[in-house]
Amino acid sequence: MHTIWKGSISFGLVNIPIKLHAATEDKDISLRSLHKVCHTPIKYEKVCPVCETELKPEDIVKGYEVAKGKFVVLEDHELEELKKQTEEKAVEIIDFIQLSDIDPIYFNKSYYMSPNEGGAKAYTLLRKALLESEKAGLAKIVMRSKEQLAVIRVYNHTLLMETIHYPDEVRNAEEVPNVPVKDNITKKELDTALLLIDQLTTPFEPEKYEDEYRNRLMELIESKRTGEDLVTPTTKEPRGNVTDLMAALQASIDRTKPKTATPKRKRAAAKKKA
């Protein structure tokens, strides 16, 4: 597994040399943009619209727009100096917390952590301490010129670091438009919705879910590559014109209802009708 970062974890006086490895990977299918006439891949060149010249990397500087059309220019050496001042190649655990206290909206990207040379025993100690205490470590780390918050926990016998957003990076949910404030749901509607949830509840087995679009796209690419005939996929049954919330819920239940209802379910249904 490719190492993307080397450093150490520190908590108290304990220091653990570690390596980071990406825990997830993006499996999106990459498509190139081609010229329709000759099928040549298109180049994306950096051109100054005023000078009308193509720019080389040394011709480009970073800038922060403080007002419309007004920029503060930041030189590369200034950014490098700032990076050196903050980057110590250490993951410093600053607190220990309950993982359940963090809403999933804060989670960003996951990394596996492996012990570097001489760090196996301390790595094992931290792993066991986290398991025994049922806690997670809240840490700070500088990666890619950005200081990030991170959570360190145990996943499948391996230390896992998940970077998390700062509070000011999470947008205010109260600013989402058209969210209903009043609750005008009837008890019958709620009971029917809960029954539907009960029928659809199942243990989470991630291996049974697949990216259907990606699979179909690869089939299309393969059929074109090998010259096979294309097939038309089977279309889903059209949904009924359901305009009532109660009818929509009942229709969903009917679709998921087992062929033979259990006596318990029959009695519950009889009570609801009564």
Rg estimate, integer Å:
28 Å
Regarding quaternary structure, what we see is single chain
Shape descriptor reads extended
Please summarize the sheet with the most strands.
Answer: 7 strands, mixed, barrel
The total beta strand count reads 11
Structural class by sheet pairing and helices: alpha+beta
Please name the CATH architecture of the domain at 5-27 and 88-169: Beta Barrel
Overall CATH class of the domain at 5-27 and 88-169 = Mainly Beta
Note the gap between the termini: 62 Å
What is the number of helical segments per DSSP (H or I, 4+ residues)? Answer: 6
Give structural notes.
With LigD forms a non-homologous end joining (NHEJ) DNA repair enzyme, which repairs dsDNA breaks with reduced fidelity. Binds linear dsDNA with 5'- and 3'- overhangs but not closed circular dsDNA nor ssDNA. Recruits and stimulates the ligase activity of LigD. Belongs to the prokaryotic Ku family. Keywords: DNA damage, DNA recombination, DNA repair, DNA-binding. One of its GO terms (biological process) is double-strand break repair via nonhomologous end joining. With 274 residues, this protein is of the alpha+beta class. The protein is 28% helix and 27% strand. Among the domains are: 5-27 and 88-169, Ku70, Chain: A, Domain 2 (Beta Barrel); 187-199 and 248-260, no CATH class. The protein has helices at residues 76-86, 120-133, 187-200, 212-226, 245-256, 263-273, and strands at 5-11, 14-22, 47-48, 53-54, 62-67, 70-74, 90-97, 107-115, 136-143, 146-155, 158-164. Strands 1-2-8-11-10-9-7 form a seven-stranded mixed β-barrel. A hairpin with a 2-residue loop joins strand 1 and strand 2 (14-22). It is extended. The relative contact order is 0.12. The model has no long low-confidence stretch (mean pLDDT 82).
